[in-house]
Amino acid sequence: MASASRVRVGTLVPLAKEIAGSDNGSVSSIPIFEGFNVVGRNHLVVVDKRISRKHLSLHASTDGTIEVVVEGPNPIIIRSEGRRRKVCAKERAKIANDDVLELIPGDYFVKYMAVGDDHRSSIPMNSTDLKKGKRHIEDDIAAVKRNRQIMEDEALARTLQESFAEESTSASGTTSIQTSSPLDGAGSSDRSNGRTHSVDHMEDVLSLTFRLMRVQGLPSWANASSVTIQDVIQGEVLLAVLSNYMVDIDWLLTACPSLRKIPHVFVIHGQDGASLELLKMLKPSNWILHKPPLPISFGTHHSKAMLLLYPQGIRVVVHTANLIHVDWNNKTQGLWMQDFPWKDAKDVSKKSPFENDLVDYLSALKTTLCTKKLALNIQLLNCNVVITEQWPEFRISLPAVGDVGINAAFFRKFDYSSSMVRLIGSVPGYHAGSNIKKWGHMKLRTVLEECMFEKQFCKSPLIYQFSSLGSLDEKWMSEFAYSLSAGKSDDGSPLGIGKPLIIWPTIEDVRCSIEGYAAGSCIPSPQKNVEKDFLRKYWTTWKADHVGR
């Protein structure tokens, strides 16, 4: 039988997670030959479905150049010459001798070791081996095609996120983001020296974006890079502002004991009735509660965020979970957070769009205006009176700052110029004049109209996901889609409105969830709202088995 010979050009050598050069035991050594190579799940010693059977393809040329193509849906990381780069689905990159690859960001480290020209080896392969390899590749290509659209959408989103990250990093030189350690991680509380712990390019770029929360009962690979509430609230917190709808203090103090050590905790909530009475009864004595008043007869305060004050600056967190056990443990939830230093004395008057977004929203929480018709005189005298309800402003003493009042204006003391996002606040009520573009989807439209996008973003799909459904109509849905599609492509033409879809779980989705049918209580909506005829074209479901969710 005829035989063939392939020239070996190098090896992917497994490394310990700390890049110490020792075998990590979870990946076998992978020989790389001239021509086409496949790296995938078969090369793992352990079972991890995040790694596709055809995770990467490597094209090795005779001149020693290796081109890597990410074939699976999950990204990889390439460390080269002191820089760390994420490569997403369908993207290509070149690697050279001594470059390190993370087959999954943060896991499965391998180093490419090239074979010298004088030491290249030829390994005989018979035609049967070659046919098996070809058949294996063809099977994998079919699987890749089935996921192509999903991969394209994910790659576009990641590319956009990374472009923001690169712009911010190039503007500031370093970034102050950390998701694994708080602002005081550098071990200094001096406001003038290292207010935030600098992170160079070798740190995880993914920490600049969003994280999922850890879900109990999932395998460790499905919780990779996820966070718990203790990962978010940690270190020397001087003041915590916790904004949420539902707050279970018993669970909160058990899940995050460090909250007991924070001298000042301000809780903005949406609870009432017996739940509010229980909240008042269980709260520690140094906690202050505030329920923002509503200018309309329905709705509730739902904003889920945290402001954590440290000696060196502030951590801003926006997330999706109520402060209750089931939300932080049994559901796929996400959060965004970024750390910001105090402003330098010379920059006190400087403001950024993010700063204005934040302070405007906090101001709306502090004083919600409610105009009512009130009879001031039984005799015929009527007039409009503005009823205001202030949040309970309080004062605290801060190291190197002194006595300060905690109000919306206080949060202008921090430098948000490195912010990677904009905040879109939602304030209940009816808005007119300039306020129309200050909140909600009209604010989002205003922000997007200032943005330029690559041509590939034209008519991008619009995916809506929420846990409760109000009474929607076709007119509002059209306005919402128009706002989400605002902006122009790089040639100046409008992006165009993409296809809108609403993710809503089916009965089977609920039944098969971690909580089973009990999870249905968290997606409230009257049947008449869900069954509106015009909504039928929007419904879709979501599943991400490849990441365990």
Automatic annotation (TrEMBL):
<feature type="binding site">
    <location>
        <position position="304"/>
    </location>
    <ligand>
        <name>substrate</name>
    </ligand>
</feature>
<dbReference type="InterPro" id="IPR010347">
    <property type="entry name" value="Tdp1"/>
</dbReference>
<dbReference type="GO" id="GO:0006281">
    <property type="term" value="P:DNA repair"/>
</dbReference>
<keyword id="KW-0378">Hydrolase</keyword>
<dbReference type="GO" id="GO:0017005">
    <property type="term" value="F:3'-tyrosyl-DNA phosphodiesterase activity"/>
</dbReference>
<keyword id="KW-0540">Nuclease</keyword>
<keyword id="KW-0539">Nucleus</keyword>
<dbReference type="Pfam" id="PF06087">
    <property type="entry name" value="Tyr-DNA_phospho"/>
</dbReference>
<dbReference type="GO" id="GO:0004527">
    <property type="term" value="F:exonuclease activity"/>
</dbReference>
<comment type="similarity">
    <text>Belongs to the tyrosyl-DNA phosphodiesterase family.</text>
</comment>
<feature type="active site" description="Nucleophile">
    <location>
        <position position="302"/>
    </location>
</feature>
<keyword id="KW-0269">Exonuclease</keyword>
<protein>
    <recommendedName>
        <fullName>Tyrosyl-DNA phosphodiesterase 1</fullName>
    </recommendedName>
</protein>
<dbReference type="InterPro" id="IPR008984">
    <property type="entry name" value="SMAD_FHA_dom_sf"/>
</dbReference>
<keyword id="KW-0227">DNA damage</keyword>
<feature type="compositionally biased region" description="Low complexity">
    <location>
        <begin position="162"/>
        <end position="176"/>
    </location>
</feature>
<dbReference type="GO" id="GO:0005634">
    <property type="term" value="C:nucleus"/>
</dbReference>
<dbReference type="GO" id="GO:0003690">
    <property type="term" value="F:double-stranded DNA binding"/>
</dbReference>
<dbReference type="GO" id="GO:0003697">
    <property type="term" value="F:single-stranded DNA binding"/>
</dbReference>
<keyword id="KW-0234">DNA repair</keyword>
<feature type="region of interest" description="Disordered">
    <location>
        <begin position="161"/>
        <end position="198"/>
    </location>
</feature>
